[in-house]
Amino acid sequence: MVPEPSLVVALVRLVDRLPLPPVPRGRGRPRQYPDRLFLKALVIMLVKRLPQVHLLLTVLEQPTAEMQQLRALLCEHGRYPTRRTWERRLRALPATLPDQIGCLGRTLVAVLQPWAAGGPAAAIDSTVLRARGGVWHKKHRAAGIVPHTSIDTEAGWTKSGWHGWVYGWKLHVVVTVAAVWIPLAADLTPANTADNEVAPRLLPELPAAVRFLLGDTSYDDAALRDHCAAGGRCLATSKRGAYPHQDDGVEVRRLFHQRRSHSIENFNEQFKAIFDSHGQVPTRGLVATQRWVLGAVLVYQLTLLYRFQQGADLRVGLKPFLRAA
Length: 325
Known about the structure:
The protein is an alpha/beta fold. The chain has two domains: about 1-20 and about 35-95 and about 290-325, no CATH class; about 115-285, Nucleotidyltransferase, domain 5 (2-Layer Sandwich), CATH 3.30.420. Helices cover about 45% and strands about 15% of the residues. It is built from twelve helices and six strands. The chain has helices at about 5-15, 35-45, 55-60, 65-75, 85-90, 95-110, 140-145, 195-200, 220-230, 250-275, 285-310, 320-325, and strands at about 120-130, 155-160, 165-175, 185-190, 210-215, 235. A hairpin with a 6-residue loop joins strand 3 (about 165-175) and strand 4 (about 185-190). Helix 1 (about 5-15) packs antiparallel against helix 2, helix 2 crosses helix 11 and helix 6 packs parallel to helix 11 (about 285-310). It is globular.
């Protein structure tokens, strides 16, 4: 009897059917292994909770039926990448993930039709993730002193209205304002990066159907508003200044703010719960953390697509589904 494939095998096989963003042809010898193969490896890393490449390779070497299936899916024309190739290509992968997330986000919008019963709006926000290890205090940073080897010197400080001062990273994300929260664009930066500086990088990944972009006061920026208007979108944000506001648009902004909060803040909490991100991230350095966090966004999208194909709920049960995989 042929055993049924595990859930992680099913998710990895689904990567073969994903659309990929166009990649400009570079100079030099063509790559022997396609980018899709390393996306499959990234899915395994996230589902199996393997934050380091050497852990992934060690687990894949285990003589189980599931690992044998996965190794077969990671071969190209019968060839399996060497350890050095794995390390090099997975180190380069984070640079391509924002484009891949945007491409899959547009595909999910076309398949799931999230705005069939409402207006085509999306919400933009950032959520803070704590760096692994100790914190690099300002006085030590200014002096160029790293008092402990556990400190991730590539992270940054930010002040959250909910968590206070946090040393770590920011996940910048855009999701649909609809019954189903679909990530449409994402990027990861040190926590001291301003939200309105990252937003223009996310806008090109949004589906053309998006007409309203909802944000909080950190996106109340004239240049960003003009950028959205040039693309035929309306940027609706909370206003700075003392409350209560008395201008004519206050009631409309209040309604938009409620819809924004319901979608993206709930998504952020669900995302952190699924991928155990309420504490410290399991990686160190910008590249490794981008690979882990943006890879988690991609796996979230992949899970939505798989569960849609299976006729399962797209809002409830995502965490136990991935744990079972």
